[in-house]
Amino acid sequence: MLNNIVIRINRSTTSIVTKTRWASGTTILAGSSLSRKTYSIDAAYRDLRDIMRERGPADDVISKSNLDNNADHRISRSDPILENAAQDASSYTMKRPDLSLVPTCVEQISECVKYCYANDIPMVPVGARTGLEGGIHAMRGGVSFDMSQMKRLLQVNESDLDCHVEAGLSWRELNDQIRSTGLWFPVDPGADASLGGMASTSASGTNAVKYGTMRENVLGLEVVTRDGKVITTAGTKCRSKKSSAGLNLTNLFVGSEGTLGVISSVRLKLHALPSNMAVVTVAFPTVNEAVESVVQVMQCGLPVARIEFLDQPGVSACYQDSKLPNLDPNLPMLFIELHALTKSGLDDQVDILQDIFESQGASNFNWSSKQEERTQLWKARHNLHWSILKTKPGFANIDTDVCVPISRFPEMVAISHELIDKFGLDAPLMGHAGDGNFHSVILYDPKLPGEFEKAKQLGIEMGRVAIKLEGTVTGEHGVGRGKMDLIEEQFDDCTLETMYAIKLALDPKNLFNPDKVFKADNMGV
């Protein structure tokens, strides 16, 4: 990579324009802020406060004095609020912003983004702060856009099975609001994540094996770009389930982790609530029998809605916290959910599962169609990450997120256990076995020197194994700040250069969530 650098200086900012020519011959012109702050926090606070005062929601009729007061409470530089804006579920050292904005409408986002970009101020979108990869950390300070007050359900089209929501609404809040329609949104990460954040990382959850990830369930996005323009990725009024028109901007922004713009609203697919459901729990003598059973279930074409794998330490943690009677804390287990149109169809699926599992030496096979028991099981599964943390009070954690083809899943699990034994750390496995995705919650004592580095290296080694097994280092959590090295191993140089070119075309100054996903040095900025 060869760079020619020109420094531009004006009254308010110092910026770099870098002409980058990669080894493949690709050339991109990118302007970037210097790593040191070149903006006045005091001036930014005053100017952004004025913007928030002037740009209220278009459908709100409130007095000027109330608008001013409202705006003053939606921009802050106080220590508690700035720390809260950077507090997520990761174990990385928190990096807080200089200012926190809490917009209530896309107009405010638009004007504030436009101002920040013109003044070389980094921007970090913040959702429900449930991420595990430090994606909301303000690595270069700047302004966080806290979307927690943009929670409106804008539209529900029951006949067409779709809806339009603001980015701050969570998936649980959406399902609560649409339950009376007989529809639901099935993408369910463990935490109560915001739908904008879920689109940002292409999140998934326990239902992905049947209903897909966010990428399959997002019909379109409203995104604010660097100059404050608001784009609709699928077309201004398009709600169709498929389209061959134009470039697929929706899939470009889904999974972009806030590095290309600020997602302000999301149009989603909805699904009919299943009429007949059952859950199954089953234990196996060894991990190998459990994961081989998963492969058999998927290859036989049984339409399971959920199939979750827990190794023995994972089951033990789940049992200690939930006390569910059907769990065997001494053995690895699978949690399964089945959906069917008829009761007889559900019974047939249960019989097929039981035959497969018995051939693998399964024990403690239990199933239930009772709503209460279903709810208890999936509550325990969604809480499992925190249940594991409770087993080691005072310990911190690093989470892996590997995903491999289903035929390589048993090998991935076996090698992961070998690595865990080699490193001598506690790291229970749990995951969405039906699509080859699992997590290892690597526990370490932050008070012991070198333990964080040891845990991080274990996660890196698992990621490298996933790459060798034709998989990915992250199936649903995103890259954030924790997996930037690994994606350079997953993709070849030409592919990475194409990604860099797209990033710099949309964000030539590298101000949208900088130092996430891609390293600035590798992009030449």
UniProtKB/TrEMBL annotation:
Superkingdom, natural source: Eukaryota
Name of protein: D-lactate dehydrogenase (cytochrome)
Signal peptide: none
Annotated GO CC locations: mitochondrion; peroxisome
Annotated ranges, domain FAD-binding PCMH-type: 92-273
BP GO annotations: lactate catabolic process
Keywords from the named record: FAD, Flavoprotein, Mitochondrion, Oxidoreductase, Peroxisome, Transit peptide
The encoding gene: LDHD
Entry EC no(s): 1.1.2.4
Cellular compartment(s): Mitochondrion; Peroxisome
InterPro entries: FAD-bd_oxidored_4_C, FAD-bd_PCMH, FAD-bd_PCMH-like_sf, FAD-bd_PCMH_sub2, FAD-linked_Oxase-like_C, Oxid_FAD_bind_N, Vanillyl_alc_oxidase_C-sub2
Pfam families: FAD-oxidase_C (PF02913), FAD_binding_4 (PF01565)
PANTHER family: D-LACTATE DEHYDROGENASE (PTHR11748), D-LACTATE DEHYDROGENASE, MITOCHONDRIAL-RELATED (PTHR11748:SF111)
Lineage of source species: Eukaryota, Metazoa, Ecdysozoa, Arthropoda, Chelicerata
Family label: Belongs to the FAD-binding oxidoreductase/transferase type 4 family.
Coiled-coil ranges (or none): none
Main location as per UniProt: mitochondrion
